[in-house]
Design a protein that fits this description.
This protein has 178 residues and is an alpha+beta fold. 35% of the residues lie in helices and 32% in strands. Bound molecules: coenzyme A. Coenzyme A (COA) binds next to strand 4, helix 3 and helix 4.
Length: 178
């Protein structure tokens, strides 16, 4: 069983969050941007995943009525491909569902196949392209959506359970029909 713990992001986590952020993104947020998010708890929901005292990843979403917009997710490089990203995603989707969201959206670089695979595993579908969305390279973004979070939440929790218990994983691409 893996022993990561997911928790609300706190101001005191920001030193570690910023180290991950600078390493993970070509256009990193600055510390002030995270501080502003943490000052707006009605709209902004930011979670960290810890291994003991170490923050090893984080995710953030904005909640707008019944719609959640995932605005960031990153895992420390030396912790990738061990399920931390999936546990963050499952935790965020659970929190969003509890807060009454039924739709979830995000943008992802067309070249970012690891992140796209993670999102597809949780039932996101690419529904549109936003041209030249990323100002650093002019790269396009896929806009991905889950339109029926309440229906999918059982399977999302099953994916998280399998990761925590180190069981063979199955992607929602195969288990969820359109
Ligand atoms: C995207 C990211 C958060 C994934 O975190 P992670 O902890 O490695 O994710 P997991 O171990 O839970 O993997 C979940 C799924 O993601 C996909 N995935 C992760 N790394 C992958 C890789 N290197 N190649 C292909 N698919 C990958 C797989 O589908 C994987 O499922 P599987 O283990 O059943 O094959 C991480 O790679 C990251 O921080 N990247 C840099 C920041 C970033 O690009 N964020 C997204 C911005 S839109």
């Amino acid at each position: 069983m893996i022993n990561f713990e997911v928790d609300r992001m706190k101001i005191r986590d920001l030193d570690q969050v910023m180290r991950i952020e600078r390493n993970a993104f070509t256009m990193p947020w600055n510390r002030w941007m995270f501080e502003k998010e943490l000052q707006n708890p009605d709209r902004s929901h930011f979670l960290v995943i810890r291994d003991g005292k170490n923050v090893v990843g984080y995710i953030g979403f904005w909640l707008l009525v019944d719609e959640a917009h995932i605005v960031t997710i990153a895992v420390r490089q030396d912790y990738r491909q061990r399920g931390a990203g999936s546990l963050l995603m499952a935790s965020a989707l659970n929190l969003a569902e509890k807060l009454n969201a039924d739709k979830v959206t995000l943008e992802v670089r067309v070249s970012n196949h690891s992140a796209q695979n993670l999102y597809k595993k949780f039932g996101f579908k690419a529904v549109a392209i936003r041209r030249r969305f990323y100002s650093d390279t002019g790269e396009d973004a896929y806009i991905m959506w889950i339109y029926d979070l309440k229906e999918k939440i059982g399977e999302i929790n099953a994916i998280a359970w399998r990761i925590i218990h180190n069981e063979e994983d199955e992607s929602m691409q195969e288990t969820i029909k359109d």
